[in-house]
Structure formats: structure tokens, C-alpha cells
Write a structure and sequence with these properties.
By secondary structure, this protein is α/β, with parallel strands linked by helices. The protein has a domain of about 190 residues: Rossmann fold (3-Layer(aba) Sandwich), CATH 3.40.50.150. Helix content is about 40%, strand content about 25%. The chain has 10 helices and 10 strands. The strands form 2 sheets. An 8-stranded mixed β-sheet has the order 1-8-10-6-5-2-3-4, with helices on both faces. The chain has a two-stranded antiparallel sheet with strand order 7-9. Helix 4 links the parallel strand 2 and strand 3. The longest helix has 22 residues. Bound molecules: S-adenosylmethionine.
Length: about 270
């Protein structure tokens, strides 16, 4: 495994601030039909008594902030992430709006919480980047109370096939040693084997389509992927990459009216 999944690389390049997550969320505004994953998670936990919830790899804290501000969740909320930079936006918003959410830097593989701490633990699009996936899942299991829920959102191996192809083409042109494709390491199709310690597992498959009529949001989204290539492209190379991606998107928009790509992921609900 090369440095694309290395802790320092994640902190310094891949998830050094919250801008990349924002762009990814923005591109999802063009998804059809709209799927609000945070709301889906909220509905799942609302069906049981959840007083204390942890978001593992919470990124910019969006899910927890929405839980408090939009969905009116009044229980205890905790969020951890490996990357201090990405937590800044969450910590600032938490302070400004007095949300009472406990954010801290921590590693999913060695959670700094006692056994049986939480009624529910969420992990949205995180585990692909964790070196020891089983260890992280086992830590979530340990920190859950009996009957608690581990809710994880995992891409299908068929998620965003055009993006995967684009990245592979770019990597070939750049002569990259490797390009990051998260679902190559872990996908909805392979996730069940990590959940064997749970008493019951439900998998909800979700699918929609990104449909974009002008290139800008997609180019901004692709722009976040510069550290996905090893070695990281220099400024000149990256300008050329973005230009060629723009042409590909524009061509499809001219030919078909839209650029489309398929989102496919699964919400796993595992009960301790
Ligand atoms: C794709 S982002 C998803 C963030 C957030 N869950 C969301 O859906 O917006 C992946 C997050 O996982 C975090 N991460 C990666 N490895 C981690 C680890 N070992 N422990 C905790 N967080 C980790 C990254 O820093 C990043 O914020």
C-alpha cells in the first residue's frame, strides 16, 4: 500500500481542509433523485432510542451540525476525525452556534472512548482510507452499547464509473504510479465480511444520477482530486488535466444535453 492511504498524507494533502468535502457535497446538488443521506441516518436512529451518537471520520462535521440545527436532535453528539485541518470548520461552527457537539482528533482504529459508550455510531465514506478496516469496525463495535447501531455508508464498486475512467485516463497521461479509487479497497459488495461480530446486518442499496448541464461544478469537483494521483501533479500538469477534463465534459453536454454519472452506495445498519 503506497502513501495514498498514509496517515500523514491524509492529514497533509487529501483531507487537509474542508474545501474538498464542500465541493463533493456541491456536486451532489445535481443528483437525481435527491438522496439526503444525513436525513436517512437520522430517520434510522429516530426509530430507536438514541441518546448518544458518534460520527467516526466526521470531516467538516456537516452531519452532526445538521442533526442539531435542522433535525432537532437533542442527545449527546460526538465527532472524531484524524485530520485536525478538516475539523476546523466544524469546531468554529460549533462554537459560533453553541451546538454543544464534542469534536476531537482521533483515529478510527484506536477510538479514545470506553467500551459500551454509544447508542449509535455513524461512519460516512471513511473506511476506504483506514489502513486496518477490520480494526476500525471492531473499535466501533467495542464502543457501542449492546443493541447499539453501527451505520456505515459505503460506495458500490460501480459508483461513478465515468469518474473512475476519467481518473484512470488522466493517470495514464500523467504516467502516475497509482491513482486513488476508494472503492478498489473497500466497496459495498465486500463490506459484509467486516461485520461478522454484529448480531444483525441490514443493507439498503441506494442509487441516483449526477446530471450536469454546464461543466463548472464538475471541474471544481475534479479539481479536488489532484492529490489522488501519485506523484501529485505540478501546477502546469494540473492545468492541462483540468482543461482536458473540461473538454470531455463539454463534449458530452453538447452531444447529449447533460453530463451524467451514476452514484451507487449502500447504507449498512449493523446491530451489536
Ligand atoms: C470522504 S471524507 C468524509 C467525511 C464525512 N464523513 C462526510 O461524509 O462528509 C473522509 C474522512 O475520513 C477521515 N479519516 C480518514 N482516515 C481516518 C481515520 N483513520 N480515523 C478517523 N478519520 C479518518 C478523513 O480525514 C476525512 O475527513
Amino acid at each position: 500500500m503506497i502513501n495514498l492511504y498514509n496517515k500523514l498524507f491524509l492529514q497533509k494533502h487529501l483531507f487537509n481542509d474542508d474545501s474538498k468535502i464542500k465541493k463533493a457535497i456541491e456536486v451532489n446538488r445535481f443528483a437525481n433523485p435527491k438522496i439526503d443521506i444525513d436525513k436517512e441516518v437520522f430517520n434510522i436512529i429516530s426509530a430507536t432510542e438514541v441518546l448518544k451518537l458518534l460520527d467516526v471520520g466526521c470531516g467538516n462535521g456537516d452531519l452532526l451540525i445538521r442533526f442539531r440545527k435542522e433535525f432537532g436532535f437533542i442527545g449527546e453528539l460526538h465527532g472524531i476525525d484524524l485530520s485536525e485541518g478538516i475539523l476546523n470548520a466544524a469546531i468554529n461552527e460549533n462554537k459560533k452556534s453553541k451546538l454543544g457537539i464534542a469534536f476531537r482528533v482521533d483515529d478510527a482504529q484506536t477510538l479514545d472512548y470506553p467500551d459500551d459508550s454509544f447508542d449509535a455510531i455513524v461512519s460516512k465514506n471513511v473506511l476506504y482510507y483506514v489502513p486496518d478496516i477490520q480494526k476500525a469496525v471492531d473499535e466501533c463495535h467495542r464502543c457501542l452499547k449492546d443493541g447499539g447501531l453501527f451505520i456505515s455508508i459505503i460506495y458500490s464498486k460501480n459508483n461513478q464509473p465515468k469518474l473512475v475512467k476519467l481518473r484512470e485516463e488522466v493517470a495514464r497521461k500523467l504516467g502516475s504510479k497509482e491513482v486513488l479509487n476508494p472503492q478498489d479497497r473497500l466497496s459495498a459488495e465486500t463490506f459484509n465480511k467486516y461485520l461478522e461480530n454484529f448480531s444483525k446486518v441490514e443493507a439498503r442499496n441506494m442509487q441516483n444520477e449526477i446530471r450536469i448541464g454546464f461543466p463548472k461544478p464538475y471541474i471544481e469537483y475534479f479539481d479536488c482530486m489532484r492529490p489522488h494521483f501519485d506523484p501529485i501533479p505540478n501546477d502546469e500538469q494540473w492545468d492541462q488535466v483540468l482543461n482536458s477534463v473540461k473538454h470531455i465534459i463539454e463534449r458530452e453536454i453538447v452531444q447529449k444535453g447533460n453530463f451524467t454519472d451514476k452514484n451507487a452506495f449502500t447504507i449498512f445498519i449493523a446491530k451489536k
